[in-house]
Specification:
The structure is a single chain. About 45% of the residues lie in helices and about 15% in strands. Strands 4-3-2-5-6-9-7 form a seven-stranded mixed sheet, sandwiched between helices. A two-stranded antiparallel sheet has the order 1-8. It is elongated, with a radius of gyration of 22 Å. It is of the alpha/beta class and about 290 residues long. Helix 9 crosses helix 12 and helix 11 crosses helix 12. The protein is built from twelve helices and nine strands. It folds into two domains: about 210 residues, Rossmann fold; about 70 residues, rRNA adenine dimethylase, C-terminal domain (Helicase, Ruva Protein, domain 3). The chain binds S-adenosylmethionine. The site of S-adenosylmethionine has 23 residues, from strand 1, helix 3 and strand 3.
Length: about 290
């Protein structure tokens, strides 16, 4: 079926664009069931391919906006989705598209015409692996407008996203993602479920987004910098890894305020610990500014 649709439009799977199409209906249904869609929801799909997942989404929600980078597939989609009047295809790169504009279009119902009632906005995607991390982080920047995200990721990346503090997989990616949402894994999808078969196993990942508090929003740049420094050299104690942030005494003071041992390594800290550290360093910086005034 996939081969036939591609052939009809003179197309071949493009490896560079991560084109591994889902060829197994059961797995398609698993993804949709994890997404837990409601009739009024608006969905942003990334990389609809030839529209297999798009069709499933379209029957379960109010409308779907599907963003596809490949011009040939956009042509094919115009045909495979021609009977779906609640689907809008956008020919664009999800990494450069004006997301605020598209999300607002979905949220206000403009994407589906005046009759639509705006419900929750969800992201569902069989993401191409080469953009997993940048795409997730781009979307999480807009998490205030997104209820949940369900996507396929390479099994190893999924394990890093959902890792616990202290484990080998726990790192900057885990902390950044779990600070933005609750992450759950919903089982694997084997290579045989795709055409063409990828070399890796995939995992269904769900992120239920958390809306940041005013304080979290304010401390976000500092929080990100601390997380990056803490994991840049995993084996370093935090007092050394974060030494560029403050003088020795001030740094020790920040750790005391956060009630954390500066001899720990980044991998031992939870998201809440990193937040406490960001708040403590934030206070330090404010005091230094006040002292200079
Ligand atoms: N959803 C289809 C399915 O499940 O069968 C196809 C999934 S395939 C893994 C990934 C899709 O994402 C391809 O259609 C590919 O052309 C598209 N894609 C790749 N990079 C993209 C990008 N930067 N922005 C939007 N779509 C992209």
């Amino acid at each position: 079926m996939i081969r036939a649709v591609l052939a009809e439009h003179g197309l071949r799977p493009n490896k560079a664009l991560g084109q591994n199409f889902i060829a197994d209906r059961n797995h398609l249904e698993r993804i949709v069931s994890v997404a837990g869609l409601h009739a009024g929801d608006g969905v942003l799909e990334i990389g609809p391919g030839i529209g297999a997942l798009t069709r499933e989404l379209s029957t379960r929600c109010s409308f779907v906006v599907a963003v596809e980078i490949d011009r040939g597939l956009v042509r094919a989609l115009a045909k495979t989705c021609e009977d779906l009047d609640n689907v809008k295809i956008i020919h664009a790169d999800i990494l450069t598209l004006d997301l605020a504009e598209v999300l607002s279009e979905i949220q206000t119902g403009r994407a589906a015409g005046a009759a639509a009632t705006p419900g929750d906005l969800r992201v569902v995607a069989n993401l191409p692996y080469y953009i997993t991390t940048p795409a997730i982080f781009r979307l999480l920047e807009h998490r205030e407008n997104i209820e949940s995200m369900v996507f396929l990721a390479q099994k190893e990346v999924a394990a890093r996203l959902a890792a616990r503090p202290g484990s080998r997989d726990y790192g900057a990616l885990t902390v950044a993602a779990t600070s933005a949402g609750d992450i759950t894994l919903h089982g694997n999808v084997p290579p045989v479920a795709f055409y063409p078969r990828p070399e890796v196993t995939s995992t269904i990942v769900r992120i239920d987004t958390k809306i940041p508090s005013e304080q979290e929003r304010r401390l976000e740049p500092l929080f990100s910098e601390i997380v990056k420094l803490a994991f840049a050299q995993r084996r370093k104690m935090l007092r050394n890894a974060l030494s560029s942030l403050a003088e020795k005494d001030a740094l020790e003071q920040a750790f005391r305020t956060a009630q954390l041992d500066p001899a720990l390594r980044g991998e031992a800290l939870s998201v809440a610990d990193f937040r406490a550290l960001a708040a403590a360093f934030g206070n330090l910086q404010n005091r230094q500014v006040d002292a200079r005034l």
